[in-house]
Design goal:
- The protein has 436 residues and is α/β, with parallel strands linked by helices.
- It folds into 2 domains: 221 residues, Glycogen Phosphorylase B (Rossmann fold, 3-Layer(aba) Sandwich), CATH 3.40.50.2000; 175 residues, Glycogen Phosphorylase B (Rossmann fold, 3-Layer(aba) Sandwich).
- Helices cover 41% and strands 17% of the residues.
- The chain is built from 14 helices and 17 strands.
- The protein has a 7-stranded parallel sheet with strand order 5-4-3-8-9-10-11, sandwiched between helices. A 6-stranded parallel sheet has the order 14-13-12-15-16-17, with helices on both faces. Strands 1-2 form a two-stranded antiparallel ribbon.
- Helix 5 links the parallel strand 9 and strand 10.
- Helix 2 packs across helix 14, helix 7 packs across helix 10 and helix 8 crosses helix 12.
- It is globular, with a radius of gyration of 23 Å.
- The chain starts with 10 loop residues before the first helix and ends with a helix.
- The N terminus is likely disordered.
Length: 436
């Protein structure tokens, strides 16, 4: 079929063009303004760094990537570093910081919840050059990631990227058939993009293994995203939360927090919950979050006869979610596509034992039979662990205590310590190389 020269460029066209431009750029010399002192095996940052973050998920969007970016931004800024964020514009949202720069964007039928960035802005290109950054840290290998990489190479700035997502598990959002074609394209894109970075950050070792399976030879560093722990709330607040959502004080409350989307494996959770509810009348499931599969998930719950047993809250703000965590009895997480699972870490910090599928990066965060259970990806196994917690209150409470203690490993301070050392090592290597 002949090519139509009048056709408007699509998503793959834009990626191809950006890739072609990126590959033609030469690397210019750049001397970082930060300095480092060697302390044995550790590099300590002794002056401020100027860091540019490129992310397609950023506030007011609430997901694992945006939470990670905002957490890193806030703590690096608190420590005196200069952090600048480049992200898509979001309709109706006004930034309060002068260090946030927005690209034009549009909303598409493919991802209605997320603005689609238009990665062309001569004005922002000039702004970028004027910032004299030490490090560009991209959060995506797609449009803004490619543009951030190009601008970094244009100006000779060190380039690192975080791989937050197992992108091949989200191929159903791309309207291309067969899916093997989409998967192959995504693997080739990731190999090309991450091979052009000075280093790549991942939130778990399974993700590192996945990148290595794509023949990516770039340095890979595992740094887990830190979380703000969920504070406990008093009994009156717990009762109010339950009453607001129609849940009795004596009912066992199983909680899920996250996107309502097909890749989260929520049909398996509902199948498991159906099994449990046939044997235990005094149990409810609350699903907190929004997403493209919200309506079909509600329909499936109704088809299973669970309409009066499952509460869908839709999207909630952080301050609304915190008391819900503290009011629940256990946390369920059926996803098989997580690189870390920030909601799991938050649930542990709230003192909730977690039942999760033994897949992706989740097993690194849960101590099986200590602060939670890792199950097979089947409803019977999952249901059995839920029933154990219902029937063994003393064990559930003990596991909850262990969960709260073990969640301390996900501190924000530890994450940013790791990032400071990581950035420093990248710049130290660049400095050493430039003097040869």
């Amino acid at each position: 079929m002949p090519l139509d020269s009048t056709r408007k460029p699509g998503f793959l066209d834009l990626l191809t063009r950006l890739r072609r431009v990126y590959l033609t750029q030469s690397v210019e010399a750049h001397t970082p303004k930060a300095s480092w002192e060697s302390e044995g095996e550790t590099l300590r940052i002794s002056t401020i760094m100027r860091i540019g973050i490129f992310s397609e998920s950023y506030e007011p969007i609430i997901n694992g990537v945006s939470v990670s970016v905002c957490t890193l931004r806030d703590e690096l800024t608190r420590r005196g570093h200069d952090v600048f964020v480049f992200a898509p514009a979001f309709n109706g949202h006004q930034d309060t910081s002068d260090n946030v720069f927005r690209f034009p964007s549009a909303h598409t039928p493919l991802m209605r919840d997320y603005p689609f960035p238009i990665p062309f802005s001569p004005k922002l290109r000039q702004t970028f050059a004027s910032l004299k950054l030490d490090v560009v840290h991209t959060q995506t290998p797609f449009l803004l990631g490619i543009l951030g990489a190009k601008w970094a190479r244009d100006c000779g700035v060190s380039l690192v990227s975080t791989n937050h997502t197992l992108y091949t598990e989200y191929s159903h959002y791309v309207p291309i058939r067969p899916k093997t074609l989409t998967r192959g394209f995504l693997i080739r894109l990731m190999k090309w993009y991450y091979s052009g970075c000075d280093a790549v950050v991942v939130p778990s070792h399974p993700v590192e293994e996945t990148l290595r399976s794509y023949d990516i030879q770039t340095r890979v560093e595992v740094i887990k995203t830190g979380i703000v722990g969920i504070p406990p709330c008093d009994a009156d607040t717990q009762r109010d939360v339950r009453k607001r959502h129609g849940i009795n004080d004596d009912e066992f409350l199983l909680l899920y927090v996250g996107r309502i989307a097909r890749e989260k494996n929520l049909s398996m959770l509902l199948d498991a919950f159906k099994q449990v509810s046939t044997r235990h009348n005094n149990i409810r499931l609350m699903m907190v979050g929004g997403g493209p599969a919200l309506e079909e998930t509600k329909r499936y719950a109704s088809e299973l006869g669970l309409a009066d047993k499952v509460v869908f809250t839709g999207m909630l703000k952080r301050l609304q979610i915190e008391p819900i965590y503290s009011s629940a009895d256990a946390f369920a997480f059926p996803s098989t596509t997580e690189t870390q699972g920030i909601a799991v870490c938050e649930a542990l910090s709230a003192g909730l034992p977690v039942i999760a599928v033994n897949a992706g990066g989740i097993p690194e965060n849960i101590k099986h039979e200590v602060d939670g259970f890792l199950t097979g990806n089947n409803p019977t196994d999952f249901a059995g662990r839920i029933e154990f917690l219902i029937s063994n209150e003393s064990q559930r409470l003990k596991m909850g205590e262990c969960a709260r203690v073990n969640a301390r490993q996900f501190s924000i301070e530890r994450m940013v310590d790791d990032f400071e050392q990581f950035y420093s090592s990248i710049l130290h290597k660049k400095r050493a190389t430039s003097t040869l």
